[in-house]
Amino acid sequence: LTTMGEARMDPNLSSPDSTAQQDSLFNMTDVFLISLITGLFTYWFFFRKKKEELPDLPKMQTVVAPVRDSSFIEKMKKTGRNIVVFYGSQTGTAEEFANRLSKDAHRYGLRGMAADPEEYDLSDLSRLSEIDKSLAVFCMATYGEGDPTDNAQDFYDWLQEADTDLSGLRFAVFGLGNKTYEHFNAMGKYVDKRLEELGAQRIFELGLGDDDGNLEEDFITWREQFWPAVCEHFGVEATGEESSIRQYELVVHTDVNMNKVYTGEMGRLKSYENQKPPFDAKNPFLAKVTENRKLNEGGERHLMHLELDISNSKIRYESGDHVAVYPANDSSLVNQIGEILGTDLDTVMSLNNLDEESNKKHPFPCPTSYRTALTYYLDITNPPRTNVLYELAQYATDSGEQERLRKMASSAAEGKAMYLSWVVEARRNILAILQDMPSLRPPIDHLCELLPRLQARYYSIASSSKVHPNSIHICAVTVEYETKTGRLNKGVATHWLKNKVPDQNGSNSLVPMYVRKSQFRLPFKPSTPVIMIGPGTGIAPFIGFIQERAWLKQQGKEVGETVLYYGCRREREDYVYREELARFQKEGVLTQLNVAFSRDQAEKVYVQHLLKKNKENVWKLVNEGMAHIYVCGDARNMARDVQNTFYEIVSEFGNMSQPQAVDYVKKLMTKGRYSLDVWS
Predict the structure, then answer these.
(1) Is 620 exposed, middle or buried (0-12, 13-18, 19+ CB in 10 A)?
(2) From CA 472, how far away is CA 605, in angstroms rounded?
């Protein structure tokens, strides 16, 4: 800047005569320029601005106009509905239950609609009393460690901040949870409690569904008591038996432009051919598998390590996040369904919602072929729920088979027991049911309408973005088991991933994926000690954690003690990442490596036994070192046993009673010093 200033001064170094002439000239020029600028500014301010503002008004309206009708009240009034069933759903089950409840309403002379809270302004709940015999029902799933589902996050935030008077609102809540988790049905309980605090009137007790038991039975039991309570409250009666009502109509496309047909995309047509960020659940990124190797040396199971290339995707992740992948069903299962139902699976069709006012125009992306729907969009491997059996019963030509289907779909004790035994415990999927009931041959379009959506599968990321910014690593074990009927059932996603072989340009190596953020995070200060407990594939996020701690150490940061408790069946069979862990230990990043081999000796040894063995060191790290504890893996047994072990250690070395020790560990959780990433 100094140089430029000096250069500009050079021309002014001239004689006094020329300077005087220049002063006179500059004065006249200045007056002219000032007058010109003032004139232009006046014109722009009074005339040009007005011209620009007037046409801009409709443009502004276009920009701020909502892309959706955010008032569910107006929609209910317009369509004559008086019951709205909101769902907080991560895997589709709560949405399915909401649809079933909204369909039930017609039996009582009422009209219902299922609604995604993400699409509406929930502050309108205070206006629901404007509609006669109105009721709001909430089917709310709990995700992770007591969190709301993604689509219910805004509703949860609103509830926390709201001071609205909901005294005119009548409501009921059914929660979907899993008892193996610490915060069982936290979201359902919170919504039920908070609505009452805001003055709303509960017309039926909170239902608590347990996916670790029999979620379907819990829902049916609640539902069969819920509707009589609704009838009593509103003074209405059932108008007749439950009947089969189609929600969608079939349109077969005989002459269609194949460029307008969905071939597996989750949202935008041709999104897999023309990829555009940002990538999420409705717009997954097609990542190439660059590595797929078997991790274990022996045994019956197949443990694998996959690496997904996310170069040029703008996807960012942190250690501890989850990667979601959209799998495809086994083509042999799809073909068998087509053969049994005598259908040309390549027929292009659409299923269009008969309710023209519904936000959900199709049950899955349409138009598409039956083959695509059964491969990418529909769940054909899980045992179907009772409502599917009820709707299918009408197509069984054998009276015995029809009666059995209706009985299993009923709320009678005998029917529930039969459903539990014949469908759930026998793990009969829709193909097995069609095979075992020869007279049951439903139209394929109705079957496609009834089957739930195939859901994304979540895996804990086994890498650090500091070390692998353009790659996401997955550690998984293939699921395979024989059912009571002698059939071999295979896990949809793990077998699909197993067959993803890296190649140069083939589509076989592509995986539709996106990243879901997690609260499972390393401490803010690298110097804070960490205790990581992750047997089996629960080691996945800790590979990322250790990679990150190694990277931090290389950057010259002071890194605290890094302690790992890992477990597997046998040292020579399924000790995964052995070389990597040994290297990290040699480099001094992994300060303690404790491995439990459960089946290498007469008595089984698990991670909790090693924690007890090192209890003094564990307590010192937690109490004096302010260590953060991380647990990843099986929720039903391992996570619970590990937590009980911490209760014992805290009680013994902290001189506390059992209740005090429990409270101590719960406070660690609240402070973010005891984190869980578990599944059942």
Answers:
(1) middle
(2) 32
Tokens of 527: 């110097």
Burial 325-341 (b: 16+ CB within 10 A, else e): bbbbbbeebbeebbebb
Catalytic residue from among 227, 496, 551, 679: 679
Q: For 605-620, write each residue's pLDDT tens digit.
A: 999 999 999 999 999 9
| HEC readout, 541-592 | HHHHHHHHHHHHHHCCCCCCCEEEEEEECCHHHHCCCHHHHHHHHHCCCCCE
For residue 626, give the nearest of 543, 560, 565 by alpha carbon: 560
CATH numbers and ranges of domains, the chain: 72-234 (3.40.50.360), 276-327+456-518 (2.40.30.10), 328-454 (1.20.990.10), 530-678 (3.40.50.80)
Contact 309, 463 (CB under 8 A): no
The structure's pTM equals 0.86
Per the listing, tokens 């509703």 go with: 155
Is-contact 560 528, C-beta < 8 A?
A: yes
The candidate with the shortest Cα–Cα distance to 261, out of 364, 379, 380, is 364
Given phi > 0 = left and psi -120 to 50 = alpha, else beta, which region is 335? alpha
Is 632 an active-site residue? yes
Pairing of strands 348-353, 285-294: unpaired
Q: For residues 647-657, give the mean pLDDT.
A: 97
Ranges 177-181, 379-383, 464-468, 501-505: which has the least confidence: 501-505
Q: β-strands 457-460, 592-597: how paired?
A: unpaired
pLDDT, tens only, 296-320 = 988 889 999 999 999 999 999 999 9
**CB-based contacts of 150: which residues, under 8 Å, 6+ apart?**
90, 143, 281, 516
Q: Model confidence over 585-608: pLDDT tens digits?
A: 999 999 999 999 998 898 999 999
Instruction: Tell how many helices (H) and how many strands (E) occur in the chain.
Output: 23, 23
Contact 129, 101 (CB under 8 A): no
Q: Is 471 one of the catalytic residues?
A: no
- 243 confidence band (pLDDT: 50, 70, 90): low
- Please, which residues bridge with residue 552 across strands? none
Sequence-separated (6 or more) residues with CB below 8 Å from residue 183: 142, 145, 146
- Active-site residue (options: 422, 632, 651, 675): 632
Q: Are 511 and 289 in contact (CB under 8 A)?
A: yes
Mean pLDDT of the chain: 89
677 is catalytic: yes
490: pLDDT confidence band, cut at 50, 70 and 90?
A: very high
How many Å apart are CA 216 and CA 325, to the nearest integer?
Answer: 26
Instruction: Name the catalytic one among 460, 464, 651, 675.
Output: 460
Q: For residue 658, what pLDDT band results from cuts at 50, 70 and 90?
A: very high
Q: Does the pLDDT at position 23 exceed 60?
A: no
Kindly tell me the sign of the dihedral angle through the C-alpha atoms of 163, 208, 142, 375.
negative
Question: Is 138 in contact with 172 (CB distance < 8 Å)?
Answer: yes
Q: Is the dihedral of CA 21, 27, 30, 32 positive or negative?
A: negative
| Coil, helix or strand at residue 378 | strand
Specify the pLDDT at position 578: 95
Q: What percent of the chain has pLDDT over 90?
A: 81
